[in-house]
Amino acid sequence: MTTRYRIALIPGDGIGTEVLPPACAVLEAVGARHGLEFGYDRFDWSCQRYLAEGAMMPDDGIDQLRRHDAVLLGAVGWPGVPDHVSLWGLLIPIRREFQQYVNLRPIKGLQGVPSPLARGTSEVDFVVVRENVEGEYSEIGGRLHRGTPAELALQQAVFTRTGTERILTYAFETARERNGSVVSATKSNGIIHTMPFWDEIAAETGARYPDVAWRQEHIDALVAKVVLDPTRFDVIVGSNLFGDILSDLAGAVAGSIGIAPAANLNPERDFPSMFEPVHGSAPDIAGQGVANPLGAIWSAAMMLDHLGHPEAGAEAVDSFASVLAADGPRTPDLGGTASTEEFTLLVLDGIAAR
Ligand code: NAI
Ligand code: MG
Questions:
Q1: Which site among 4, 80, 160, 166 is 20 to 30 Å from 149 CA-CA?
Q2: Residue 76 C-alpha to ligand 1 middle, in angstroms?
């Protein structure tokens, strides 16, 4: 029996267009072994499109995505287009319209990938659960008296009870599944309205999970601990801004930002979820064919999990983990000389040899 999925592909800009073909190749190879077939609709929504047509995506873009089982995205952003245009013109509308309120970012030390830190990474295994649709990334605010000495800018953070409760609940559920614990990122000593509210809801949620150990830590001290001892953590939950910063840092601590995957999840499955590497479009290496495809491949593996095929997802992860552990070729960000294509072929060989 074959199960078919319709996937929306948004390669975007720069290395986004270089890492999605490897991710699709792995999906197909693993899928063939598990009775899964993927059909793709490719959308050219990008900064190129913005420069040519004045918008990152068409007016009915969200509706075009709606009928897909999932969205696989490379990265968007390009010099010459302000980053807030590419973010607010594409990624943020998709996350919000589809209520992808969880941004899930696993961090795992892989054998054969040395951490830039002295300590090894192989026992590092935690996830960052980032609130993905509200918080500090809000449109509410404005600027006054532009160009005068009295110029000012105001930006409001938005924390709702519903939004805060559901992300903390997701974090505690994840920790329960992993037999782990929760650290809630806060800054209630400095941010005196929204953060105490977050802390209160964390405490209420924690009380509903008596079997899950949890504590809160201030974001400044917390980032230092992630660097000094990343093995201490299991699930870290944070607001949109804190989660964004934490997960890039954590990806780098694990070896390279080119490896780190992310899922934008709508846990209720009312809408498609979206899977994308943590990294951006990397204009500094775009077009050279040397981007590490692992962030994209790992994101595709998370898509397999979400679609209900954890054994296929695990196989995709195992396939690249064994290439790295065998001390074989790797891309330059991991100290090797392999191209994106050479490395992808090795991963595909590994799957074929199973
Ligand atoms: P970036 O992640 O694109 O690059 C940061 C550094 O990491 C660069 O030196 C790059 O060469 C390296 N790098 C990233 N991914 C890599 C990979 N797969 N293999 C090897 N090396 C890799 O972040 P940056 O430079 O801050 O942003 C560049 C553009 O990407 C901006 O326009 C930004 O707005 C956009 N961006 C988009 C994101 C998205 O689509 N979700 C996320 C982050 C940034
Ligand atoms: Mg980021």
A1: 80
A2: 9
- Is pLDDT at 117 greater than 80 in this prediction? no
Under 8 Å CB-to-CB from 206, ≥6 apart: which residues?
Answer: 172, 182, 212, 214
State the Cα–Cα distance between residues 325 and 327, nearest whole angstrom.
Answer: 5
Q: Ligand 1 pocket check: which of 281, 292, 294, 324 to mutate, most ligand atoms within 8 Å of Cβ?
A: 281
Return d(Cα 48, Cα 30) in angstroms, integer: 32
The four Cα atoms 303, 230, 334, 104 give a dihedral, to 10 degrees, of: 20
**Whose C-alpha lies nearest to ligand 1, atom 30?**
280
pTM exceeds cut of 0.90: no
In which residue ranges of the chain is CATH 3.40.718.10 found? 1-102+257-354, 115-254
CA distance linking residue 77 with residue 338, whole number of Å: 25
Question: Which residues lie near ion ligand 2 (Cβ < 5 Å)?
Answer: 244, 248
Task: Let me know if domain 115-254 sits in CATH 3.40.718.10.
Answer: yes
C-beta separation of 95 from 264 below 8 A: yes
Quote the DSSP letter at residue 54: S
Chain segment 285-309, per-residue pLDDT in tens: 999 999 999 999 999 999 999 999 9
Among 49, 102, 54, 40, smallest CA distance to 76 is for 49
Quick one: pLDDT at residue 107? 87
- Three-class SS state of 103: strand
Q: What is the pLDDT of residues 88-116, one digit of tens each?
A: 899 999 999 999 999 999 988 888 877 76
**What's the whole-number average pLDDT of the chain?**
94
Three-state secondary-structure class, residue 26 = helix
Probe residue for ligand 1, chosen from 78, 92, 95, 257 as the CB with the greatest number of ligand atoms within 8 Å: 257
